[in-house]
Amino acid sequence: MEYRIHRRTGDKISVLGFGTSSIASAGEKEGIATLEMALQNGIDYFDLATAESASFPLFGTAFAGVRNQVYYQVHFGANYGPGKSYSWTTDPETIRRSVGWQLEQLRTDYIDYGFIHCLDEAGDWQRYQADGVLAYLEEQKSKGIVRHLGLSTHSPVLANMVLDTGLIDTLMFSINASYDYQHGDYANGSAAERMALYRRCEADGVGISVMKAFAGSQLLDAKTSPFGKALTEYQCIQYALDKPGVLTVLPGVRDRADLVRVLGFFQAAPEEKDYSIISTLTPKDAEGACVYCNHCQPCPAGLDVGMINKYYDLSKAGDALAADHYRTLSVKADQCIGCGHCDRRCPFHVAQSARMREIQAYFG
Ligand code: SF4
Ligand code: SF4
Predict the structure, then answer these.
(1) What's the whole-model pTM score?
(2) Helix (H, G, I), strand (E, B) or coil at 171
(3) Best mutation site among 195, 305, 308, 345 for ligand 1, i.e. most ligand atoms within 8 A of its Cβ?
């Protein structure tokens, strides 16, 4: 397993997290065995926006004795209770009852990340505040029941609105090549607006947990993929992990077979994770912009082109730490020999050798 440190909370979070939407369908025995196997393989981050309330007791059984080894994202606005399927609400009393019930079933007295749940419209955010749900969430934080606040949304506009308040440490956002390039139900915002959001999160130390990394499986099927070709789970996971601010990707796991398959990401060869096929649909506003994919490797001078470009963009976006990170690289832009290999190889038509000169001048 690989881990990333949450800059604001200090939590060490596994890059592969666990989406629990369908875990209840495995049944009790298989569900518990799957959760235990996830932890044994180093997964420590679990999202609890699940389809069925029956998911919660599985966690209580699997993790009550190792609670300090796992992080829970719990959603204030996802309604659960005995025998219930998931429903969305902003009713404060329903949320109080639901969160209390979830804590009981999880056999815990605290929540690592308490989330403002699934708001995409400014009106919903206003109602969330006016109805007292935000106040309740903040009260739980002041009591130490909730350790950190987060927001789940599919909208860059709403995300920026909530980020402006300075309240949240984590953003759960739908990131995949389909939505980033304006295809699909949650393709909100232009490619440039979405990338600016990811950079803002990185600059502000707000960690991103990624939902819908496969666009609800649409990207995994040639018939529904906007690229006319199926992408693999590993390509989608790598795509999301390459975005600034991203700490963890949360694929939905139904059972141990699913888990074994997604864990195969760590054994996969670089070519199996290469998602440069998405360049076929790059919209005009994203053409010529580096997406940090490193498809242009190998660089004969040994430059990590993707990483150098990421630090450059982040530094320009106001990330105070990016210049320091850049300086720790053993091979920097000044060692570019201008061979043009990256220019020829880049599927996104980035004039990379010229950009390396720009980066060298910027960092000095
Ligand atoms: S220059 Fe092109 S190929 Fe290289 S990392 Fe950037 S986007 Fe990817
Ligand atoms: S132009 Fe520079 S960065 Fe690009 S491949 Fe050649 S040496 Fe590497």
Answers:
(1) 0.86
(2) strand
(3) 305
